[in-house]
Amino acid sequence: MIELKLTLALAFISILQFSQAALALTRDYEGTLGKKGIGMTLNVEKPYYFYNDFLKNIPLQESQDEKGNTVIYELDSKGAKVAVFKCQFPDKDPDGKFSGKINQEVILGTWSHLDGSGSQPFKLREVGGVGSDGEKRYQVAGVDNDAVFEAKVQKWHEKSCAIQLNYSRTMMESLLQAI
Question: Does this model's pTM top 0.85?
Answer without folding.
Answer: no
